[in-house]
Fold:
Amino acid sequence: MNVMPHTAMPVISVEKLRVTAQSDQGDPINLVSDIRFTVQKGEVLALIGESGSGKTTIAMALMGYARHGCRIAEGNIHVAGVDVNSLSPQQLRAFRGNKVAYIAQSAAASFNPGMKIIDQVIEPVVIHGTLTRKAAKARAVALFRELALPNPDTIGDRWPHQVSGGQLQRLMTAMALIGDPDVVILDEPTTALDVTTQVEVLKAFRRVVAQRGVTAIYVSHDLAVVAQMADRILVLLRGQIAEYGTTERLIGAPQADYTRQLMNAAQQQARPSPWRAATRAAQQPLLEVRDLAAGYGPRGKDGQPKTRILEDIHLQLWRGQAIGIIGESGSGKTTLAHAIAGLNAPCNGHILFNGHYIAGDMHKRPDNELRRIQYVFQMADTALNPAHSVERILSRPLMLFHGLRGQALTQRLHQLLDLVKLPRSVLWRRPWALSGGQKQRVSLARALAAEPDLILCDEVTSALDTVVAAAVLDLIGELRRELGLSVLFISHDMHAVRAVCDQIVVMKSGRIVTQLAREDYDKPTSELYFERLKRAVPELRQGWLDEHEEILRAE
Structure:
């Protein structure tokens, strides 16, 4: 380790931290061990590593917390002058929120949908009696202004569903900061955001950290984001420190093999495409969308939904082709995929598959059409039944669509696992016993079990760490080459879209604003919205965020 010494008393000091869980036999299993680091006042330390490496476990331990079935088995933890291990449960409650605050990954899951925003933001200081309700409201409004939220005086009167994802993430930051904590823990706070919203939130985070002199722990798997936020980086691998040092040194000259692997995954380049436009001449499109409109909510007498999302969508996808759909949150990407899959029937327009019109409602489609279009969802956690084994999950489409039983079924199960590079031992495991990457591979295997012509991949790498996401993108590319699959790939990750897709479709406010070939991605276009999206993709180098701000000011 090449870490510069500090003479001042650190705000956070961790020595020999070990957190354990219990095996089925009751034996202790180390989740993290021999963790040591310090953080000075006003510094930001990033914890990075793959899923399961112990990032969140360490962050939680700073608050004296271990998940159910786990415990802090060893180590000294000092935060803001407090020996965390010595605190009683009552003292811990006062410590959390006053001395240390936590900003979670999903603001939507953290807010109560039945309470107004302002009541939730001021709740920590009102309950503890730190401030009167009137003073708390005044401080909240000041924080809203500091975090560059629109209409700071009145935004708190809204309900959580009435603000955007990026605004909700900043409102959760206000909730964390209202008690004026010494330490803030940010746990993957921008993972679920689109690129332009992510940049907006990162700027707000960094501005507040700098202005308030807050000491922060930033948990992430995105090295490009970490490069903009952190003074130091601690790289974790399987619960242990792989490397620890300044951001400048780790990005400029990483020492550990695993750190270099993370860097390579973050800088993933586009791959050669197996599809060629020249093949169009002998084909009709596999999928054609004409004049499509769709929305949500009850339909009126005219058959139109209460809320229209998509308007006038035209799209062609050819056999063997991969098209990427990009755009900000709320642009209609997932609504389009749902319409094609028949999960949300269009209110106008037509969908043709293999030259034939197909019903907008999946319940009206015959089994053979259902088989040919398969959906891979963003969150494998909620897409896979936690009570079923992988064997049962994969057997269902094989029995339904192909009538397989007995030895033929077992043989095909093994082939599917080989296709997605999973060991056969996972067949008897349940989803909760698998890693994030393994669960997403099971989701892919389930889609492939139907032997489809088209798979709809909806943000399939957004919940995965950089290395695992790169492996899943590699796998999708291999499946295209081996099986001749067509892919509709929805993502807010521009790197992922470039790695997988031949064509890129850009959506804004429910409409397609431009479409281009991947090889034209770096060429200037007249579409300002697309140029703004491109500029908002963080680069793996320090200073990028400052340059981005200067460019915006100059425009």
Summary: The mean pLDDT is 89.
